[in-house]
């Protein structure tokens, strides 16, 4: 039986840590669906707009090998309905979210993968702004 994987993220200033988690998420099943967080969600939760717009981030993520479908994640609180909508068998997230999504273990497997060390969007923005 085919296995659907779902994962979520902002994927702003796309970097190798983002690539690696998508590659590893894809290896957990046959179809990978990615929820890319809305600009409005970022503004609400992080107090700043992403560097790249929602449309740009969706375009980049959807072009990655192994990604089958993308959608806009409008709210962090809608995870359960997204998992159900896409009939996901497994939710994959980086381990910065470890334990945070265990409640969905009743409808899918929940897997946390180690983050790629020493790279983040925030660090990249700082590094670039120092040049
Ligand atoms: N990631 C990683 N290694 C890094 C940086 C990020 O594995 N060095 C992973 C994160 O753990 C996450 C994914 O890449 O699983 C996307 O990271 P972010 O863009 O920072 O996403 P975030 O803002 O944490 O997601 O429902 C979740 C929200 O959409 C927010």
Walkthrough of the structure:
By secondary structure, the chain is α/β, with parallel strands linked by helices. The protein has one domain (4-129): 3-Layer(aba) Sandwich (Rossmann fold), CATH 3.40.50.620. Helices cover 34% and strands 21% of the residues. It is built from five helices and five strands. It has helices at 16-26, 39-46, 54-62, 79-85, 121-130; strands at residues 4-9, 31-37, 69-73, 90-94, 109-113. A five-stranded parallel sheet has the order 3-2-1-4-5, with helices on both faces. Helix 1 links the parallel strand 1 (4-9) and strand 2. It starts with a strand and ends with a helix. The model has no long low-confidence stretch (mean pLDDT 96). The structure holds [cytidine-5'-phosphate] glycerylphosphoric acid ester (C2G). [cytidine-5'-phosphate] glycerylphosphoric acid ester is lined by residues 8-12, 17-18, 21, 37, 73, 76, 93-94, 96, 115-116, 119-120.
Task: Based on the model shown, name its key terms.
131 residues; alpha/beta; Rossmann fold; five-stranded parallel beta sheet; 5 helices; globular; binds [cytidine-5'-phosphate] glycerylphosphoric acid ester
